[in-house]
Structure formats: structure tokens, C-alpha cells
Design goal:
Length: 243
Amino acid sequence: MKILRKYLKSLIEFIYPSSCPLCNAHVETHGELCGDCWTSFNWIDGAKCIHCGFPFASSFDLGPNMMCPTCASGKCELDLIRSACVYDDASRAAMLPYKHGGRIQYARFMSRAMIWALRDTDISPDIVMPVPLANKRLWSRGYNQATLLARPIARAFGVRMDLDSISREYRENMGHKTSAQRAQNVHNVFTVRNPDKIKGKKILLVDDVMTTGATFNELHRVLMNAGAVAVYGVTFCRVAHVD
Ligand SMILES: [Zn+2]
Ligand SMILES: [Zn+2]
């Protein structure tokens, strides 16, 4: 079996030589980023909010239990959030083709970075749930970018991925900017289909990008109403300025 796996690996390597998914430079492991691309991202590996993972600009040691103003004022509903990197030119350049250009191969390095982002937490989710897309968006895009990220994360935790307990109504993207506008646009957008699968469960939500946290907060409300006991979130990147 081991020999067969090794043979298949060499065959795949021969047909698809390992190259960085972003710039095509040679890399050792299939699907991994090259060093240059890796360092172009602003990974959240310094001081951050203990609750939502918001990165602090200061490199001073603020202590292990520091909270951002949003969490300190109780406006972040989730039990814990982590993101792998900051939403900036580098992550936007990867995110747009991943989300809208069919570059689904990016899911590999993105999900690995998200598992890394959760390394300093002790969460033990029962379910991993990608943030649902409205059917109309799913049909036009052909895939839910969050589902591709959630699959390896569910595997890493050894738990199932939930794709059908919550559905999402289609709403036009109105280009909302502020937290209040975004919260209004997702209000009542989700419907619970299978409350039995949610009741008593600790749920890890997965999304590609976190902007104001409005989508996570709305899902938290719906899931807790359906009997969930904890809701966590993880994203590849997040907006790291306050509006
Ligand atoms: Zn590269
Ligand atoms: Zn926070």
C-alpha cells in the first residue's frame, strides 16, 4: 500500500510538477506556496485579541489576555474567532481569483493557514460549518468557496462538515460599507433546516474573509436559537481596520 502511494505520488508529480499555486515557482510540496509568496502575506502571528484574533499593530507585549475594543464592549457574539492573515493587497490578489475566477486549488494553502491560525486555541468543535451561500450564487459560481476551505479543517478536527442544516436567502450585494449596514443586510437571511443536527453542538463556522463580523454574528444568533452550545469562527483573512 505504501509503495503504491509512493508510486502514485511520483506519477502525480510527473504529470503535475509541484509549483506554487500563485506564481508557478517550483516548490517541494504540491499545493504549497513558495517562500516569496508566503512572505508577501501579512500573517497574524503577533499580538492579537484573545477573543476575536484582531491583530494589534503594536509589537509591544500587551499581555496574553488583551481584548480589542469590539470584544471588550461585548459586540462580538462568537465564542472565539481566528483568521490566518490580514485582508490587504496580497490576500485580495489571491482571494478574488479564488472566489470568482475558479482558482479552487488555492483552498489547500488557505485551509492549512487557517488550521495554523487555530493553533493557540483549545476549541473542540462537534461540527464544521462553511458559511452558506444562497442557491442562486452557488449555481452561478459553481462552488461555495467556504466549503472548500471547511473540508480539510473538518478533517483536521476529525468531525463532520455540515452543509444542509442552514440555508441562506438570496440578497443583492448592495456594497454596504458600515457595520450597521452590513448587519442590516444579513438580518434574517439564514433559516435553520435541521435543528436536530445543531442542538447541543459546538460549531466552527468557516469563511474566506471576515469584514465586520456581521455574517458571523447573525449565524451565531440563529445557531444559538436552534440550541447550539458554542459558536466559533475561522477565516482565511480579515479586515483589520475599524470603521
Ligand atoms: Zn509563489
Ligand atoms: Zn476582539
